[in-house]
Specification:
Layout lengths: L1 H10 L15 H16 L6 E3 L3 H13 L9 E5 L13 E5 L1 H16 L12 E4 L12
Parallel strand pairs: 1-2, 2-3
Antiparallel strand pairs: 3-4
Helix pairs in contact: 2-3
Length: about 140
């Protein structure tokens, strides 16, 4: 998570990064937390977009934004991270970051097997991330 946050800061050096705590296990608790977040941090802080920890978090936040009559993407942009199929099922299709989960799993398994075999080499896994642009970030106007 820290590396992802550092990447967001590097990619958006002029923006402010608000780190959210990990989402609760129950959707109803997440909904209440995000309702509070909208009123206590996002609106007062002048935020106009969020890059969420994952697609589920993004979708729950989008539902709460819409419930507060905040239009997506016209007034607020949302990006998830996982590229899960559920992001295509929302009325506002979710922009997301895609990465090859199979390749990451295979690299992790190889790294583990190498460690078990006693190989002391430091292993670095580099896997590309692709932005899948959809309706949740197609901003056409900004809220004043």
């Amino acid at each position: 998570c820290q590396r992802r946050l550092d990447g967001f800061r590097q990619g958006c050096p002029e923006g402010e990064v608000l780190l959210l705590k990990s989402p609760a296990a129950e959707i109803s608790v997440m909904e209440e937390e995000y309702r509070s977040l909208i009123h206590e941090a996002l609106i007062p802080g002048g935020f106009d977009s969020v890059i969420a920890l994952n697609d589920l978090t993004a979708l729950v936040l989008m539902n709460q934004l819409l419930a507060e009559n905040i239009r997506i993407p016209q007034e607020f942009g949302v990006v998830g991270c996982d590229d899960l199929a559920i992001g295509l099922c929302h009325p506002v299709k979710l922009t997301t970051l895609h990465y090859d989960r199979k390749a990451i799993a295979e690299s992790a398994l190889k790294m583990l097997l190498d460690k078990i075999a006693g190989k002391p080499d430091i292993i670095r896994m580099d896997h590309p991330v692709t932005l899948i642009s959809r309706a949740s970030t197609a901003k056409t106007e900004r809220k004043s």
